[in-house]
Amino acid sequence: MHQCAHHHPSGQAYGWAFAIGVILNLAFVGVEAFFGWYTGSLALLADAGHNLSDVLGLLVAWGGYALAKLPPSPQRTYGWRGATILGAVFNGLLLLIAVGGIAWEALGRLSEPTQVPAGMVIAVAAVGVLINTGTALLFVRGRKTDLNIRGAYLHMAADALLSLGVVFAGFVIMWTQWSWVDPVSSLVIAAVIFLGTWGLLKDSVHLALQAVPPNIDFEKVHQALAELPNVTEVHDLHVWAVSTTEVAMTAHLVRPKLENDDQILKQASDMLHSEFNIDHTTIQIERSVSDVACGQAEEGTL
């Protein structure tokens, strides 16, 4: 049996990005909540509430990011890498709760629209657009390769969109005096945030259940292993996520010929790393299926 793990830098460091995002958003929550209460603007209060949930979301993602860097131990042989998956799940749920809160308050305010000082609302929300957009840009590079970073990015991008909607609503109210635009804009933006959040939650729960990561084609992995020299069968193949950036795999390869297996094991490991970005591999070599009791081989499944 052969175990191999390619250890390489995880890419851009996000510790300072998390710290900057938390500090900026905490400060803005206080400012926005005060002016939302002072002006009676639901849009500002909703934005402040969502910003507060984003601070918590950033802290969760930051915690997962930090825990994933801890070394393995005899009790946790993969270390705390799985914390990034849990962080992504929590962030998805937190975003859905925030969307529900915004929608609930907006529906309640529709029945009793309140006049708000549009100029002040626009000014405060415009600051929010700048802060949230700037924070989102800190995570933009990692959003496609790391679900945990994607959760942080979505929080910030959603807040930037919500703040932009508040600016738009403020201008409409200033021109038309239509006070119902304030809660309606919150409802529209809540729907947009929900659509963006659903993909994050679905993918993170998928990884939490140890399913094959979406970027891995299971059949192609099986075929690539089967095409290795002198391999007659592949079975007990499992592919799952160790974290939001690392993938592990185990497999049994049947090679009837008696020979030194070191070369084929290295070739298999290098191929899985270069073609599928699977870095943690465990491969067992067998001379025939009947030599060992492998449940999946007996059942005729992968």
Provide a descriptive summary of the structure in words.
The protein has helices at residues 15-39, 42-67, 83-111, 118-138, 147-176, 181-208, 218-226, 262-276, 295-299; strands at 2-5, 233-241, 247-254, 280-286. With 302 residues, it is of the alpha+beta class. A four-stranded mixed sheet has the order 1-4-3-2. It has nine helices and four strands. It has two domains: 12-208, Alpha-lytic protease prodomain-like; 218-299, Cation efflux protein, cytoplasmic domain (Alpha-Beta Plaits, 2-Layer Sandwich), CATH 3.30.70. Helix 1 runs antiparallel to helix 2, helix 3 packs parallel to helix 5 (147-176) and helix 5 (147-176) runs antiparallel to helix 6 (181-208).
Number of strands: 4
Low-confidence stretches: 6-11
For the termini, the CA-CA separation is 18 Å
Please work out how many helical segments DSSP would assign. Answer: 9
Helix-strand sequence: EHHHHHHHEEHEH
Biggest sheet, spatial arrangement of strands: 1-4-3-2
CATH topology category name of the largest domain: Alpha-lytic protease prodomain-like
How many structural domains in the coordinates? Answer: 2
Q: What profile does the largest beta sheet have?
A: 4 strands, mixed
CATH architecture tag of the largest domain: Up-down Bundle
CATH class of the largest domain: Mainly Alpha
Would you tell me the structural class of the helices and strands?
A: alpha+beta
Beta-strand share of residues = 5-15%
Specify Rg, calculated over alpha carbons: 25 Å
CATH H-tier superfamily of the largest domain = Cation efflux protein transmembrane domain
The outline comes out as elongated
The percent range for helix content is: 55-70%
What is the averaged pLDDT score? 82
